[in-house]
Write a structure and sequence with these properties.
Largest sheet: 8 strands, mixed
Number of strands: 8
Radius of gyration: 16 Å
Order of helices and strands: EEEHEHEHEHHHEHEHH
Shape: globular
Number of domains: 1
Length: about 240
Amino acid sequence: MQELSLKTSDNITIKINHYSEGKDEVLIICPGWFMTKDSKSVKNLVESFLPITDVIAMDFRGHGRSGGFYTFTAKEERDLDAVVEFAKTKYKKVSLMGFSLGGALVLLHGARNFAINKIIAISAPSDFSKIENHMYSPHAWIPTLFQKFEPKRWLSIRAGNLFLPKLKPIDIIKKVQAPTLFLAGENDPTVFPWHSELLYNEALCKKSYLLFENANHAEDLFNDYPEKFTNVCTEWLTKD
């Protein structure tokens, strides 16, 4: 694995972990708010997909070892643009996997970049302003405290302006051309499943939707059901 630095169009340094095993395709893992490329969940995800593809895991601005401040999808498209441009110099096929706000960002990018091979959007919100974010729910705080307690990651988070204007994934979903898999957790306390269902219903591309029963939010689908998650995503990424 190599940690590399990239520059965005607005001069923010973005850090990536590049896991290269000589394959001709790559999967870019795009974490959501409060998750980083060096978190245990993301590292486990990488190991699960290396058998079928090279992997790039990224830190969006305001997270981990990247610079800047997080703007909750207002400017993070520029971060993903830089990573995709890097990937395109090395791979014939580039696919995207995004979690939560990272899921929103892979859809926003896919609406502009028609060269993306496949997209997987997990717990993606249809509209940032309609995210439920019931942090008082046990489904929200128990996994955070007992399964994903990583003080180093928590201390790396730098939030920016929450109120900058943002594109809504629901407004651009019909422009996405890459085959897109939508995944959601039945008990998600942060982004309710209706978001993924709505995006799936409105999408015009080749598409599929799967609700994980008794599952929570974003990377929890993988943490709680690693074999099922890996198998579903692998099938999507490898089929014609």
